[in-house]
Design brief:
CATH superfamily of the largest domain: Butyryl-CoA Dehydrogenase, subunit A, domain 3
Shape: globular
Radius of gyration: 21 Å
Distance between the termini: 51 Å
CATH topology of the largest domain: Butyryl-CoA Dehydrogenase, subunit A, domain 3
């Protein structure tokens, strides 16, 4: 059955025809191409690479960027795309988010024209895959403490350092590697096959299993000066990329929440207990569903308003912190309540709830933990930084 959507407050009336078209295209793709394969991919711990060409053909990679083969979607359209992809699986949305927001965006924003011409069309077409190397084994929430270095040597840079928890790391054709130089933190485009550049996949994950996660290592890895992103200097560069990705997360997790809610709602209507009555007729069940649909609706409104602000150039990173923190939290709550309503059936992968629940535990932590985003919000409302 095609996904009917979740729209208690008639929020669809706030979308344009083009926005609805983008959402329905992504919804149909998820229903027809993702859902038939994602359960097995999650079981196997593999990403379904076979769907990459169609995603590229539909313009999913770098969707809200202009030129160089990108679709040029609005940020609201991009958000709706992320929502439908994460309804399929957080790992799928993460793949598209990394490719667009963390690889294509920095090249588009900070790269030279030569770098843009070389990489963006290939990445948009899915012929090349990228990854974003910022997090280190000892520095996650504090990227300013990074130990990776880049030392100038004539017309080259010599890179050394370790990165971890890198989505797409072991399958990427190019890595954006952030390192400390004498002039501050800079980003470098490092191609796979460059001597000294190695990657190793992280196994044993109970979350984001349908996503490739790896560690990267640079050991006296020499790249030409032209590999450096000329417009990115200091932490502002990588943090601006993370803001793009977090915006997509704030929309994406609504999709996971919607899938859990609709699964639970349908289940409780058809599941009969106690004299043949559907369990949806009981007060405790209806109260849980009422809380879920209310929180999803609030998350939808927050995402839509942030999307409109972003399209007007008025969205601040502190706004994105609220969006990401709130919407991931409600998605987790919805997933947990949905699992409860399904009873024992909630833990089997015949239903998507436990898969979403496990994935969302990672989404809560990556690209800024909920605690870090709380401190970002706290600094905005008090004027006092409490990070240290």
């Amino acid at each position: 059955m095609p996904f009917p959507g979740v729209d208690y407050l008639l929020i669809d009336s706030q979308f344009s025809e083009q926005e609805i078209l983008v959402r329905q295209t992504a919804r149909r793709f998820t229903d027809e191409q993702v859902l038939p394969v994602i359960r097995q991919s999650f079981r196997d711990g593999t990403f379904p690479m076979a769907i990459v060409p169609e995603m590229a053909e539909l313009g999913f990679f770098g969707a809200n960027l202009e030129g160089y083969g990108c679709a040029g979607m609005s940020n609201v359209e991009y958000g709706l795309l992320m929502q439908e992809l994460e309804r399929g699986d957080s790992g799928l949305r993460s793949f598209v988010s990394v490719q667009g927001a963390l690889v294509m965006y920095p090249i588009h924003t900070y790269g030279s024209e030569e770098q843009k011409q070389r990489w963006l069309p290939e990445l948009a077409a899915g012929r090349k895959i990228g990854c974003f190397g910022l997090t280190e084994p000892d520095f996650g929430s504090n990227p300013a403490g990074m130990r990776s270095t880049a030392v100038r040597d004539g017309d080259s840079w010599v890179l050394n350092g370790e990165k971890t928890w890198i989505t797409n790391g072991s399958i990427a054709d190019v890595a954006i590697f952030w390192a400390r130089t004498e002039e501050g933190i800079r980003g470098f485009l490092v191609e796979r096959g460059t001597p000294g550049f190695t990657s190793s996949e992280i196994h044993g994950k109970w979350s984001m299993r349908a996503s490739v996660t790896a560690s990267l290592s640079m050991s006296d890895c020499r790249v030409p000066h032209s590999a450096m992103l000329p417009g990115a200097r200091g932490l502002k560069g990588p943090l601006s990329c993370l803001s793009q990705a977090r915006f997509g997360i704030g929309w994406g997790v609504i999709g996971a929440a919607m899938d859990c809610y609709e699964t639970a709602r349908s289940y409780t209507v058809f599941r009969k207990q106690f004299d043949g009555k559907p369990i949806a007729s009981h007060q405790l069940v209806q109260e849980k569903l009422a809380v879920m649909i209310t929180e999803i609706t609030k998350a939808q409104l927050l995402a839509l308003h942030c999307g409109r602000l972003k399209d007007k150039g008025k969205l601040d990173p502190v706004h994105i912190s609220m969006l990401k923190r709130n919407n991931v939290a409600i998605a987790l709550d919805v997933a947990r309540a949905s699992r409860d309503l399904l009873g024992a059936n909630g833990i089997v992968d015949e239903y998507p709830i436990m898969r979403h629940l496990c994935n969302l535990e990672t989404v809560k932590t990556y690209e800024g933990t909920d605690h870090i985003h709380a401190l970002v919000i706290g600094e905005r409302v008090t004027g006092i930084a409490a990070y240290k």
